[in-house]
Amino acid sequence: xxxDLTREQAWDVVRHIEADAPSRLRLxxxxxxxxxGPLAEMDATLESLVAAWAWFTPVAIxxxxxxxxxMPSLYEASIAEHVLPEYVEFARxxxxxxxxxxxYVELVLRRVDQGARWxxxxxxxxxxxxxxxxxxxxxxxxxxxxLTSIVTGMAYKCxxxxxxxxxxxxxxxxxxxxxxxxxxxRHQDPQxxxxxxxxxxxxxxxxxxxxxSPLAVLFxxxxxxxxxxxxxxxxxxxxxxxxxxGLDDPRHFAPLPVDTVAAVLTALDVTHEDxxxxxxxxxxxxxxxxxxxDGTAMVETIATGGALxxxxxxPAGGGAAASWACIEDGLRRLAESLGGHLASDSEGWxxx
Length: 352
Hints:
- By secondary structure, the protein is of the alpha+beta class.
- It is 36% helix and 12% strand.
- The chain is built from nine helices and nine strands.
- The strands form two sheets. It has a six-stranded antiparallel beta sheet, with helices on one face. Strands 1-2-3 form a three-stranded antiparallel beta sheet.
- Strand 7 (297-304) and strand 8 form a beta hairpin.
- The radius of gyration is 25 Å and the shape is elongated.
């Protein structure tokens, strides 16, 4: 599903998730309160996930009673398109409560890692799985936690009893803890409930961004034509300035101005794997890998002696011929403007 979105549409999903956190946490808090659940124990510690999952399990098995269906979940468009009519209300209740639990796990992770953030999971290579561009909660050390699929997947396994131990109260805590450094799993002192304050959110109007699902574009618009396949065999390029005799030693290449190179790469939509624009100083690190947004190309820095000496460019297994041509043309113009070259082994390196 996510792999069919444009990059901007995928970021719309991230922004939607960030904006719907207060309303989903309010829903979770209200249901815990109304079912005599462990509302007071929800202090965002890892151990609180044990009580949360012990409460969630019987609610899931019973079909999520008490969960309203008058607010759209992130997956509303998919539910309306694919779920049998007799299961639509059940699917809506499940989606909404899973989103609430997902955001509670987010609070738990933020307590141990204040630098964590919502991000996109981008897959390398030619084949794009359904998780490509899936929203993930990325820890400050770069580790992605697939919260959306973890919580919904566990809910399904809990409902049908498909996985041994799926209904074990410690199951959620253990899965989340597996993705954390061991030093982050230490004992945490109990605190007041972080969910109780969300009960006051009942009188607030949700932001407009959460009134409809950004995934609706996958069902409301015609399916785009598949990208033109691109044969990437033998297309590897080197951008540098220097004599042919110096190809085996980057120190023979003239230093490249990192500010100019970073600006051109950004204009060509060549970024870090997580979509962050490249910063000039990062080009001074040898082996920095950057990727075209559509998976057409990978660009890797060659740096030595405190200077950027060259860029290695190779196909990343995705995209289309037109996309590759755009990137190649942009880099060729850059090379020429710097008095350098962009050439492949088959083309040969120009003599000075």
